[in-house]
Amino acid sequence: MSMMIGAETTSSVVNQTRGKKIAYWTVTLLLAAAVMLSGIGQLMQFGGNVELVKNLGYPLYVLTILGIWKVLGAIALVVPGFPRLKEWVHAGIFFLMTGAALSHAFANDYGDYGFALILPLSYAALNIASWALRPKSRKL
Fold this sequence. Notes:
Layout: H1 2-43, H2 49-56, H3 62-78, H4 83-106, H5 115-133
Helix pairs in contact: 1-3, 1-5, 3-4, 4-5
């Protein structure tokens, strides 16, 4: 009987570990894709990126800077190794996204239904979830 309980406990731990790993990769890949696409859009000045930056009062070259950092950050999130770099990327994404939300708030640019605040804060939340769920191999 005691071996049966031990086997059930081991199975439960394995399932929790597998579930956490799936949650981590789901959140992290979603975050990396969003950041990558956003960065590419900024580098190529797609959509309303130019208008958005001008409305917030930033110079146009900010799009190039943000785009490069976003693309590099998205890559760093998914490649194996480099745990210290991943810590910096998570910090950078958090500051970038909360800064974007604050920039919109201070410029009274909330977008339709607050979308200009909700979107970057959603990315910040995904970032926090990715950081919190990261496996031991991605921790310092």
